[in-house]
Each structure stands twice: as C-alpha cells, then as structure tokens.
Write a structure and sequence with these properties.
This protein has 143 residues and is α+β, with helices and mostly antiparallel strands. Helix content is 44%, strand content 13%. Helix 2 packs antiparallel against helix 4. The two termini are 20 Å apart.
Length: 143
C-alpha cells in the first residue's frame, strides 16, 4: 500500500523515513511526525534531491519552509505527470526506485499504485502546507 503512516505505534522495525514538523530534537518516532516506508519515500525522493541539494537519505535534514515550497511545487509537477497516464517505462525518469525490485513491484499493480501514489503526494502536500503555518522547519529524518 502506498500511503503515509500517521501512528508510530503501528511501525514494525526501524526502516522508515520520519518527517518531523520542527527541527530535529534528538528524538525519533515523534507523535507529531508522519512516516513513510523506504519504497514509498523513494518514489518521491527525486523532488527532495532536486530542491534541497544537501539532502542525505541517511541523515537528519532540517529543511526550511521556503525550500518546502519548492518541494511542494516539484511534487505537484510529479503528480501532474502521473495524472497524465504516462508510459510505465518513463516513470524511472520521474520517480525514485530505491531498490532493484522496487520498479518491478510498482509495475505489477501499475494502475492501483499510480492512484495510490498520486493520493499520497496530495495528502503529503496538504500536510506540509498545514505544518508550514506552525513552524519554520520540517525535518526529514533519514535511515
């Protein structure tokens, strides 16, 4: 399922990307955070790499709200591209596939995954906009 996880208590193991609506405070698995599986975050990671040049998948990235505005616009472009029924083979030019099997798994249920990814991006944009009104930084806590 391609979705955002809102409840840290449902996480199994530690292979998740945490998005914290504040600067990193020395703690992970915050109740105010949202979480992505590695695959689900991997799909949208190119937006981060393009808009925040210092992005490090394995580090704690404290990203200011002005940069988040750029990320939101990049996510919107990604979402629009996906909404235009793209050729499945062209997705690797837009999405990130973090593992060797990621692209193959996405293609197995292409239509469903495309819809779920568009929905996840929309929901993430909404969450970022909501949190941007309350803080100057939103942090991506990597692996």
């Amino acid at each position: 399922m391609i979705e955002i996880i809102y409840d840290a208590s449902t996480l199994e193991g530690s292979c998740y990307i945490e998005v914290l609506p504040d600067k990193y405070n020395g703690e992970c698995w915050n109740t105010s955070s949202i979480f992505f599986t590695e695959d689900n975050f991997g799909y949208i990671m190119p937006a981060f790499e393009k808009c925040y040049k210092k992005f490090d998948y394995y580090a704690f990235n404290e990203i200011d709200i002005e940069t988040w505005k750029l990320i939101i616009m990049e996510l919107e472009e990604m979402k629009q591209y996906l909404s235009d029924n793209p050729n499945p083979q062209s997705l690797k030019d837009v999405l990130g596939f973090p593992f060797v099997y990621s692209e193959e798994e996405f293609m197995e249920n292409y239509d469903t995954n495309l819809k779920q990814l568009i929905s996840m991006i929309t929901e993430f944009q909404w969450w970022i906009n909501e949190k941007s009104a309350l803080t100057k930084f939103i942090s991506v806590l990597g692996m």
